[in-house]
Every structure is written in C-alpha cells, then in structure tokens.
C-alpha cells in the first residue's frame, strides 16, 4: 500500500535546501485551452529543479542512521546538483558520475556546489553502472536519484504543497516521468487525500519507460532512449517507484520532441522562464490530453520540473517549436520550370506567410520547391492549403513530420545530381560531445565511398548526420550487418520522398 508514504512525506526534511515554490496560473495557456492551468514552479528552486527535495531528504535520513564519510550519485544533472548541495550542507563529500552528454551548465553547477564530477558514458545507465562500481571500491554511500523511499518522500512534498496551495477541485495533475520518483511521491500523497484527482505521467515518445511498464504490467528495459529530454533519459523505471505508480497513476501520455519544444515556448510566453526539455514535459502532455479528451473548464496542474537548459540548445528548440505547435508546415511542391512559375505558385498559396523557400534548377521541365508556411489554424489550415495546391495542379508532398526533411534537407536543398550510381541514404544519431563527429567518421570507415554528407550541431545532446553511400547491390546486406555492429541508431532514408525530390 502507498499509505506509508503519507507519514514519510509529512516528516520529510527538505526545507533546509528547498523552498515552497509558487503555484502560478498560466494566463495565456488557460485562455487558449479554455481551462485553468496552474504551474507548480519547481524551476525556481536554488538548483533550478525539484531534485534537491529527494536528495536532501535521503541524505538527511541516512545520516540519522549512521556515520557517512562521503556519498556518490549518478545523474544527468539535476539530481547531481541536489546531492552536491545536500552533501555540502551536511559537511560530507559528494562524487557525481554524469554522462558525457550532460549539458555543460549542469556539470559546472555541480562543481560550484562542492561536488566532484566524473564524466562516463553516453546515458544515465552508463553513469549508474560506473557509480555503483566506484561506490564499492571507495566505500561510498550511493544516493539513488529516484528508487528509494526517502527520495520518493522528498519529491512527494511537491504534492503536499499543491494541496495546501489549492484546496479546491483539481481535475488532473501532469507529472514528468523518468525514473518515477516524482510521480510516485506526488501520486501517493494526492491520491490518498484527493482520490478523484487524476495523476497523469508524461514521457518523451523515445523514452517511454513508465508507459511500457504499465502496458506490460511489469518493468521493462528499453533498448534505446532518446536524450533530447536528458533529465528523463532512463531505460528502466525504478522498482519501488513503479510499485507505487501502478497504484496511483491514471494514465501516461507520450509526447514528441516538437511538442516538447512547443511547450517550452508556451511556458516562456507565460512566465518568461525557459524550461529544459524534461521540465516542459508536463505542459506538452497536458496540451495533448486537452486536445484528445476535449476537456473544458477544469483545473489542470502541471509540474515545471526544471530549468537547467544549455543555452546552445535554444537554436534547436526555436526551430522545432513552431512545428510542434502546428504553427508551421513544410511542403514540397512541383512547379513548371518556366519564367513566372514562382510568382504564380505564390499567388496560389495566397496571403499565408512563407517562412522559407528553397529552390535550385534541376531540369528544364519541372522545378522542385521546398517551402515553409506559417499557420494560424494548425492542421486544418495545412490540409486546406495542400488541397488548394493540388486543385491547381501542383503535386504536393507534406514534409511537416518528415524527420530527415526537418533536420537536414531544409538546410541542404540544392537540386539533384543525377550521376550518382548505387547510392543509398542513411540517417544516423550519436551522442554529442567533443570529437564525436570525428569518431563517427572514423567508425564509418573507408570501405565505401561517401557521396553525400550533412551534419549540424543543434546544441542538443545528440548529433544528427545524413550520409549517402555508394553501395553495389550485392553488398547491401554487408552494409546493414556493418551498421548494426557500429552501435549507432540509424534509419535508411533511400525511399524518403525528401531525398528523391531534392537530393
């Protein structure tokens, strides 16, 4: 039963380092969604996330039980800061093992709080394994970021504050999920006192650790996790957190990277604060829930869980936010290759704002244009535009949800080169860090000729590369086997319409 957590949450020791954060109404979101949206501002903690609550309570309770010379933790950043702060306040040493992909702002923050940092691997799970090894070697106490009752109880104080700050009906509380400590603590407390309030978890589509566990009714280990939302990039939900979550979580919503970016912008518009991707998950999920369920005139609470955003990542966020909010569409259209065609095409589009327009001569019959258009009425407006163009005899391909088009082609449009034989196209993703691109090229090797290459540093936690390779037909199976051994996530894009039209 989860009732044991009520006493533990009430007795949790967190306010030496944490503050009671405000529950602010998001006026713009509330008006737009026809609901009252309240934001629990955990981004306003001294370490800019809720993680200080669980870390401090765990260390405080540990020191009540025995003498400890030092602690160690594994974290992508926010838990790390919480542990470093808590250990410093208690006068003990803290070692933090972090993935190499951790934003630099989080690494420096840990160091400024008195923690020693060790960078290992590409994911939280890599860091975790190394931290466990060091803990045994150096006899340090491991402070788990989520899977311990004291940590869960510390995070549960967020739920306690919510009910103290809002004593009226709450339709649903939306909580970001990684390892599950926050949703377990909030869910246990709120469900005990307000059983009719829905507790809804929100995860990235590429890291659905709780969604998969709920679907299969057991914990699963995900093969891969996306690391855009690095704060929740966990391959397996905790044992104790899942035990609690399955008793108090009503639903889990998964959101795309574009939807997360749109949520970051939504929060900025209401608060002038910039969330990290994990910190905006709850808003992204809430918006998706409202649209799917047609919820109106309800009180909805979202947890703004963290604001440790790497500044360089803002480029990627701003690029994708308009797409995530359905305020921009990307289309490919075929127009006649003759004078005046561009003007006629633009007249057909009408007064819709054009955000970009790319073209290069290909042949003397048809021209391929790649265009971004501004949307006011979202998907409905996009569909109307496509229908209008088709009715005017313009072949159109919708590129809005085409990952290769969004990440690569829009920056490379230059016309096809017909003389490339035996070409296949692959899209790769690898953890971003100094030297990562060189490492990628080294591992790809010199066996096959590279006929096309595109890479952009998005300021994100992972790099994206588009590669064309000249592979004879009888060597295609060898290529797939070779790529599988490399260990990078990859997708074949040879049949992608964006490639066929523009590259």
Topology (SSEs and partners):
Elements: H1 4-10, E1 23-25, H2 27-33, E2 36-41, H3 51-65, E3 70-74, H4 78-90, E4 93-98, H5 104-112, E5 116-119, H6 124-138, E6 141-142, H7 149-165, E7 172-176, H8 181-193, E8 198-204, H9 209-216, H10 239-248, E9 251-255, H11 257-271, H12 281-293, E10 299-304, H13 314-324, E11 328-336, H14 341-349, E12 354-359, E13 366-374, H15 378-391, E14 396-398, H16 403-407, E15 423-431, H17 436-444, E16 449-456, E17 462-470, H18 476-486, E18 489-492, H19 497-502
Parallel strand pairs: 2-10, 3-4, 3-6, 4-5, 7-8, 7-10, 8-9
Antiparallel strand pairs: 1-2, 11-13, 11-14, 12-13, 15-17, 15-18, 16-17
Helix pairs in contact: 1-7, 3-4, 3-7, 4-5, 7-8, 8-10, 11-12, 11-13
Please give a handful of descriptors for the protein shown.
alpha/beta; Rossmann fold; Alpha-Beta Plaits; 4 domains
Could you describe the 3D structure shown?
- The protein is 41% helix and 21% strand.
- By secondary structure, the chain is α/β, with parallel strands linked by helices.
- The protein has four domains: 221 residues, Rossmann fold, CATH 3.40.50.1100; 92 residues, Rossmann fold (3-Layer(aba) Sandwich); 76 residues, ACT domain (Alpha-Beta Plaits, 2-Layer Sandwich); 80 residues, 3-Layer(aba) Sandwich (Biosynthetic Threonine Deaminase, domain 3), CATH 3.40.1020.
- A six-stranded mixed β-sheet has the order 1-2-10-7-8-9, with helices on both faces. Strands 5-4-3-6 form a four-stranded parallel β-sheet, sandwiched between helices. The protein has a four-stranded antiparallel β-sheet with strand order 12-13-11-14.
- The chain is globular and about 80 Å long.
